[in-house]
## 1
Amino acid sequence: MTTTTTLKTTKSEEIFAAAQNLMPGGVNSPVRAFKSVGGQPIVFDRVKGAYIWDVDNNQYIDYVGTWGPAICGHAHPEVLSALKDVLEKGTSFGAPCYLENVLAEMVINAVPSIEMVRFVNSGTEACMAVLRLIRAFTGRDKVIKFEGCYHGHADMFLVKAGSGVATLGLPDSPGVPKSTTANTLTAPFNDLEAVKALFAEHPDQISGVILEPVVGNAGFIPPDAGFLEGLRVITQEHGALLVFDEVMTGFRIAYGGAQEKFGITPDLTTLGKIIGGGLPVGAYGGRKEIMEMVAPAGPMYQAGTLSGNPLAMTAGIKTLELLQRPGTYEQLDRVTQKLAQGMIQVAKEAGHAACGGFISAMFGFFFTEGPVHNYEDAKKSDLAKFARFHRGMLERGVYLAPSQFEAGFTSLAHTDEDIDRTLAAAREVMSSL
Ligand code: HOZ
């Protein structure tokens, strides 16, 4: 694995060396580490539009977008200005605030499955709560998730999980009691027969099925034709609930998320990232009769000191307003298509096995002939080659997620020129791998 660099990153190295004695692995989330691609994480100083600058003043075109929220481009002036205005009134009330109504209405109007919503502080929190809710509503304990899908770091979901768990090759996490995960059943993504078999094996015990309708945490894996439809039918047949984890895809692959894009309405949805416009937010919502189980309307307890705080609500409201402007998703689609298709073409021209795809502002590619339908297929990608590619792109001013098992994100700030520069860098790197 190449770990040498022509980048001057002296300050980054100093800061990261100190960080390693202060925080586990020097980071506050494992996905930020460069464990699977080699070298050290870059320490950043500032962001703007499609760009990110490190503490040594190197500039990169950014395709991580703070892992999704920055769909309008980093530090959008209108988001910053709205935040400055609200900041004067204080940062948290711990009591109802009008801005919660505004964002709730925007989410309810946009996302087909959501009639009522509860704001929390992260995607992890949203998924934890939605699991409790489907169990409370159905009176059943088991849940089906898919291999390589990631629904945050709560105990019950750390089974064959994607994202950092896949990147670090951790099968399951110590500290998670077997009794907790005994109720988590898994199936390969895009495999309806495996889901049917689980329902047959555990009659009347499965509360629901949760999935990323387009996987972003095992790399980018879209659903096969008929897969989401099939899950909708199977869950209904068995009195179980269908949950779309749209933390990544919500407001990204369409304004109304994957459920709008594919025309399949789940019972419940989790959101995060974009609806916080770069501040910590998550949300879960769905049919009113289910959501009214949540305290204080109903008996299922879930709470949060900072939930619905005015700053996060403001950044979310302004971000959604920007996304509502005409031409937004056409622009995201066009730029991302150019990038994703260009990347595969460049890889193939250089003689590499490669496959990949995109939907709107989400993309990915693998160093394997493909096709990639599930996590097992994704693992066939040449990870050592990806690591060398990642380093080469970094040295040429392109910041990709430091893992093969993460989708990439574009934004409204990415220009044709950014994509051309990225593809020119990729061409150079691919020919040297
Ligand atoms: N969920 C994101 C990556 N798949 C990023 C959140 C994190 O784990 O830091």
## 2
Amino acid sequence: MTRLVRTRDELAAARARLVEQVGPDATVGMVPTMGALHAGHLALLDAARTGCDVVVASIFVNPMQFSQPGDLERYPRPLEQDLALCEQHGVDLVWVPTVEEIYPGGPAQVWVTAGELAAQLEGPNRPGHFDGVLTVVTKLFAAVRPDRAFFGEKDYQQLILIRRMVQDLGQGVEVVSAPTVREPDGLALSSRNLLLSPSERARARYLSAALLAGRAAAGSAAAVLAAAREVLTGADGVDVDYLELRDPELGPAPAAGPARLLIAARVGSVRLIDNVAVELCP
Ligand code: PAF
């Protein structure tokens, strides 16, 4: 049965009880979320359930990672539905802290800063976003003390930054990633999709269509980008912010071998991101 906890003390006591039930070698898996759970989150919960003895999910809409006015207020918060999904997917513990519980002294004065890796792609459009993500993930890790934490590839830059943070700060958590879950027409699942009007939703499929065309080109960097751009040429009402090729760690794209093709675009008032793995050949 899933248990809901609110405070750090409740969390620590419930975690200790669950670990005690399994024994001293119990592995604790964590899925940090901002709620509005969709099939992408559920795949992470399932991966945690399969690979760990104790599964903890956190639901916290982190004010420190929102840089666009209005985004925080309109972020969906269907808590009852999220708790029911956690129950169905075998989560042991759901931690739903208040803002005061996470930031007891008011907005953080000391942050984890993301550095150079955050100066590209999403960074310029969302000043301070990744500092906010890394700061809250550090706080969540410190409270939950997971052995493994599960993140989706959909937020690829976030995933790479969290991996790097865990390594650089020696946080002792294994970061496990899971592939992006998509709608039948290819649209990557995201809580933001709920904000799309029906006509915006129809246009949103161009992002994944462009990425998949790039991947199918399976040629040089120029060929991959050209194939993706061609799809976007016909995409009225899709305002592309970037379409970029990088190596899998987000360094410069290699001439050949594994790479990542990433896109961000505004569809109406909703900004969407997506990415796929591609194989470059000279
Ligand atoms: O990906 C998210 O949902 C959030 O950025 C995270 C990792 C839960 C931090 O607030």
